[in-house]
Amino acid sequence: MPQLGLLPRRTWAALLSQLLRPPHSACIPAVGCHSQVAEAVLTSHLKPHQEKPNFIIKIPKGTRDLSPEQMVVREKILDMVVSCFKRHGAKGLDTPAFELKETLTEKYEENSGLIYDLKDQGGELLSLRYDLTVPFARYLAMNKLKKMKRYQVGKVWRRESPTIVQGRYREFCQCDFDIAGQFDPMIPDAECLKIICEILSGLQLGDFLIKMSWRDVRHEMVAKKGLSPEVADRIGEYAQCHGGISLIEQMFQDPRLSQNKQALEGLGDLKLLFEYLTLFGIAEKICFDLSLARGLDYYTGVIYEAVLLQTPTQIGEEPLNVGSVAAGGRYDELVAMFDPKGHKVPCVGLSIGVERIFSIVEQRMKTSFKKVRTTETQVFVATPQKNFLRERLKLIAELWNAGIKAEMLYKNDPKLLTQLHYCENTGIPLVVIIGEQEQKEGVIKLRSVASRKEVAIKRENLVAEIQKRLSES
Amino acid sequence: MPQLGLLPRRTWAALLSQLLRPPHSACIPAVGCHSQVAEAVLTSHLKPHQEKPNFIIKIPKGTRDLSPEQMVVREKILDMVVSCFKRHGAKGLDTPAFELKETLTEKYEENSGLIYDLKDQGGELLSLRYDLTVPFARYLAMNKLKKMKRYQVGKVWRRESPTIVQGRYREFCQCDFDIAGQFDPMIPDAECLKIICEILSGLQLGDFLIKMSWRDVRHEMVAKKGLSPEVADRIGEYAQCHGGISLIEQMFQDPRLSQNKQALEGLGDLKLLFEYLTLFGIAEKICFDLSLARGLDYYTGVIYEAVLLQTPTQIGEEPLNVGSVAAGGRYDELVAMFDPKGHKVPCVGLSIGVERIFSIVEQRMKTSFKKVRTTETQVFVATPQKNFLRERLKLIAELWNAGIKAEMLYKNDPKLLTQLHYCENTGIPLVVIIGEQEQKEGVIKLRSVASRKEVAIKRENLVAEIQKRLSES
Fold it and tell me: Start and end of every Aminoacyl-transfer RNA synthetases class-II family profile domain (chains A, B) (predicted)?
């Protein structure tokens, strides 16, 4: 697969080079990536408890705060996911966090017990959304839209047993892309698979595979195309042994199948899909999985799931058990459930499992022991002298007004060393220094934190000089 | 106030020029900006109802979906707000949508009835967050943080009477910036006011004013600094007549006050604040409001609110009643409520009323009758001939892999005119066309939708040529 030209911004490239290089540590425990995150949360829960048992500050079970460090990682990953969705022409959409309870009823089979209901405080009965798919279908039906290519990023809530140690949360973020509408077969389906490949390649998480549920393919062929179960199972033999594209090739070389008109027709859509996936250059990423089955009521066709292949790259390194990082499928009947006249709008879509991806990147970050900047401040305004607060305030306002990201200490008379340490600790690259001497001469000292070199710049040229330096770095 | 160098991206500038110019219509009703949004929602509720009374697709009262058009506006506005927060060195933070019920208890005075509780489904009692301030204070206490400059963007929920026509929703977005920590007086407070000014100037919403609650200033002076109520009320006479900075000047010229040592001391912080605001170049934006009072339990000092001054620019145009678009204040006691040992962490912060800002921009957009692009697609892949689906798929994958935003129709054999119309309707600037002739010659036709000019480009140079054109436009 070619290197995807995702045009990553310099910041992302820099972050990735910090975060995604092979870990220093030679051994990663199988579930370590999640348990450490969870531990941090649990520890912070417990500390106040240990000090004063009657007073416990907690957050709800199965939820977590995202610290500034985590937010930086999250923001970069979401940026990449959304930019891929936009590259494929998707429009944005937002829906409320809760829906009428009846909107969610009968959409999630045995999982409906996991839906969070709101208390009946008078008025409507409401539930927190369980995914972004049902609200999307409701939106299409409510607005009588017959086609739409949309993405949505948002939180969803599920009352799962809070096994935080395995990295599952009761509140988590979903990133969905869906294509609604009646189109020629398999073209939107192929694009959804292409999108998953672009995102997983772009994030440089390592090798991956997309597994299609064989059970659903078989069902499609037998129930809808009328292929005999025996022939379907013969095809299944191949599925078990071979990957996606080689499966198709082998089947058409097998005289028992290729001379069976019914079998050929039953395989038509699948063949078409793999033809398109080949043109997209991703056919070798897709294979069949005999154990995969639909978890949700609304899927009507083949479902798929993407898994990372964590081959140990260093001796003694155990493979990370990260599970599915993306999933999707076709749901042709869901919109009709919301339409008064039962009009169908066929849909196909995918969901990126960003929480798991966050966990992986976080884990790699921890193992690399590199510090991630949690602010973007470019310039610090400092003084070596007392009674220069007013000069600093005037100077920093000039920088802000010029769009420069700037900070100073909220102290009347901070020590110069304290100010310079702050820059080193937080990764601020430039310092402007104003003191008596500078004020007399109408200059400002501009200091590079890395090289510790200082030059005097005429006050009126300061903004231009800073902007020049920032554009070069 | 100087033009803020917010370095707006070209897209933002283009959007603004479309959206924020004076409306064509000569008359805007006072609440029209909200009622139209609401009508759109209500209409879509009612249509299915009219067709089949027993089957109503609805969303919860007081909530709304955001259409792709609305999402474009929202994204641009949030980008500008967040970039200002980052310019001031703030870190990102995220907290769960719900908190333990007890976390929110006794924080909102008579408003606590507006909190959404979750149903007791076994386990903890939970409530949806009412604002982003209380979760921030809980986060600080839980993690024993003594200082932090953070921003947070997220939804909050309030069970207000759903008067959608006035633009109030039960689910809405908040953008908060807060500075926690013990610092020298009035420096962080001044920065918060500066941030409000930068954001409101940067969004080009028209002139605005920040009103400080006089009642709280008086209370501070009398209760905390020991100023006699009579002297405080004498100061209040000025407050009523004059704006912020002139108030301070006049008071120090008045012998009754300037010769009163107690009065001078009581006014010390206020004088300091206005000195800093003057250095920031925003003192003339601040005035006092005798009617403004705290709405929330946790505020401990002066509160402020920013309002837009919608002076009618055209004859017959009524002023828009948009109310407060930003608010904030000091809350020095809130964190201690969550700390087992009652340790205080003084805080000051602000919240941008982005929902009202969205409404204003949306309204201007409607009045201007300009179409906003809801996708960012740069190139459309077309063919004039039948049986060219596979060629199109191969070509579009090349573009995606090069990071180019590209779309095609999901049809085997679409008509060329349909394809070109799609580009014109959705604002896609470039079309690449592949047909028999092009394939034979190893070229692709590149067409500009605006000029309708076509040139043949060697296939191997296509990506480079497209990237060149896009960087120039």
Answer: 62-384
Q: Which H/E stretch holds residue B354?
A: helix B354-368
For residue B233, the distance in angstroms to the closest alpha carbon of chain A comes to 31
Phi, psi of A448 (to 5 degrees): -90, 125
Interface contact B397-A281, CB threshold 8 A: yes
A136 Rama class: left (phi>0) / alpha (psi -120 to 50) / beta: alpha
Contact A191, A277 (CB under 8 A): no
Dump pLDDT digits (tens) for A126-182: 999 999 999 999 999 999 999 999 999 999 999 987 555 556 799 999 999 999 999
Give the type of residue at A244. G
Spans of chain B below 70 pLDDT: 1-55, 162-167, 239-245, 266, 293-297, 311-322
ipTM of predicted complex: 0.86
The tens digit of pLDDT for each residue in A245-261 reads 677 777 777 777 777 77
- Please state whether the predicted TM-score (pTM) of the whole model is above 0.95: no
Residue B406 vs residues A93, A189, B372, B378, B423: alpha-carbon distances, Å: 20, 17, 18, 6, 11
Helix (H, G, I), strand (E, B) or coil at A180: strand
**Pick among A79, A401, A407, A467 to test the B interface (most B CBs inside 10 A):** A401
Residue B270: what pLDDT? 83
Burial letters A123-145, b for 16+ CB under 10 A, else e: ebebbbbbbbbbbbbbbbbbeee
pLDDT at A322: 62
Whether A300 contacts A333, CB under 8 Å? yes
Report which secondary-structure segment, H or E, holds A40.
helix A32-51
